[in-house]
Design goal:
- Its cofactor is [4Fe-4S] cluster.
- It is found in: Cytoplasm.
- Belongs to the anaerobic coproporphyrinogen-III oxidase family. HemW subfamily.
- Probably acts as a heme chaperone, transferring heme to an unknown acceptor. Binds one molecule of heme per monomer, possibly covalently. Binds 1 [4Fe-4S] cluster. The cluster is coordinated with 3 cysteines and an exchangeable S-adenosyl-L-methionine.
- With 351 residues, this protein is of the alpha/beta class.
- The protein has 2 domains: 242 residues, Alpha-Beta Barrel (TIM Barrel); 64 residues, no CATH class.
- The chain contains 12 helices and 15 strands.
- Strands 7-8-6-5-4-3-2-1-9 form a 9-stranded mixed sheet, sandwiched between helices.
- Helix 3 links the parallel strand 3 and strand 4.
- Helix 2 runs parallel beside helix 3 and helix 11 crosses helix 12.
- It is globular.
- It starts with a strand and ends with a helix.
Length: 351
């Protein structure tokens, strides 16, 4: 069992961001966190959560570091009995708002992992992406988190922006590894509907080789490539829980929850959510939907896929991929040798 909390506030809107986030509703933060607690109380009953059964808690956004630790206190008090003693508790943060007092306040609540939205250490690239921090702030925030005793620290990088070169990305990776991190998420820039970059799609370059280059450079420095966009000495338990299709509570405006064959969608709009955090749309998933998800998620990560979920035709195709050295079989489980081919492999097996 996992839990996710969505914090929809940001101090600025990045040009590529399609997440449910707002830069103009900070006056609603107190009411929003109260509504978030109300939904969590409801979900703990709906999911029949037992004491000590939540393995991971992830606070995402938006920008969780735009909300003061004091406003998180009632939520952590509510969740504390349900969290495992060694639960992984992650919060995302932006370098410009993750102050020493904020980091120390979140650590006091139980946070033991912070994922920083860095994206690059190149000042011009940060400006072009619409980021609100500079390279020095990024480095200082990560060092502050380490000095405060945060056990696990991750940072995000983005590649395939139009001015990206191997030289620039090599520098970004080098600078990342000079910092006290044990995880990197490296995402390819995508142009999503409704973002500022929708008007200038040419800012994304089509260079498949850069994906392999970034992955190789990060692996060379000792991080394991355990999912198409994720690398680390430490592998996020929360991320892996999603890929294993574990049940997860999704609380907050724009969050998503999952329980067995159902998904749950709270309202996106902050004011609507505050007014009624229990107005939640349900979506039923059939066995084909779940099989498809297991294949796509398993093949893009080191989770792999269990052979007993495949019919005979699918097993034949999977075994063909083993013979072609595109999949590896260990016992009754298939593992992908190249995450960047995961979609094609999944479609071939399903076909």
């Amino acid at each position: 069992m996992l839990a996710y909390l969505h914090i929809p506030y940001c101090d600025s809107k990045c040009h590529y961001c399609s997440f449910n986030s707002y830069v103009d509703k900070f006056d609603t933060r107190k009411a929003y966190m109260q509504a978030l607690k109300r939904q969590l109380e409801f979900e703990l009953e709906r999911f029949e959560v037992k004491k000590g059964s939540i393995e991971t808690l992830f606070i995402g956004g938006g920008t969780p570091s735009t909300v003061a630790p004091k406003l998180y206190e009632p939520i952590f008090a509510l969740l504390k009995p349900y969290l495992q003693q060694d639960a992984e508790i992650t919060t995302e943060a932006n370098p410009n708002s993750a102050t020493t007092s904020w980091i120390e306040g979140m650590k006091a609540l139980g946070v033991n992992r912070i994922s920083f939205g860095v994206q690059s250490f190149d000042e011009k690239k940060l400006e072009a992406l619409g980021r609100a921090h500079n390279p020095i702030q990024a480095k200082e925030a990560i060092i502050r988190a380490h000095d405060a005793g945060i056990e696990h620290i991750s940072l995000d990088l983005i590649y395939n922006y139009r001015n990206d070169t191997k030289t620039l990305l090599h520098s970004d990776i080098d600078q990342a590894f000079e910092l006290p991190i044990d995880h990197i998420s490296a995402y390819e820039l995508t142009i999503e509907d409704g973002t500022k970059f929708t008007q200038t799609p040419e800012v994304r370059q089509e260079n498949e080789l850069l994906a392999f280059y970034v992955a190789d450079e990060i692996r060379k420095r000792g991080f394991e490539h355990y999912e198409i966009s994720n690398f680390g000495h430490y592998q996020s338990k929360h991320n892996k829980g999603y890929w294993e299709l574990k049940d997860y509570i999704g609380a907050g405006a724009g969050a998503v929850g999952f329980l067995k064959e159902r998904r749950f969608y709270p309202q996106n709009d902050i004011q609507a959510y505050i007014s009624d955090p229990l107005k939640i749309i349900e979506e039923a998933l059939n066995s084909d939907d779940l099989l498809t998800e297991r294949l796509f998620l398993g093949l893009r990560s080191n989770i792999g896929i269990e052979s007993n979920i495949l019919n005979e035709s699918m097993k034949t195709k999977a075994n063909t991929l083993v013979e072609e050295n595109k999949l590896r079989k260990e016992g009754s489980r298939y593992f992908n040798e190249n995450y960047f081919l995961s979609d094609e492999l999944a479609l071939y097996i399903l076909g």
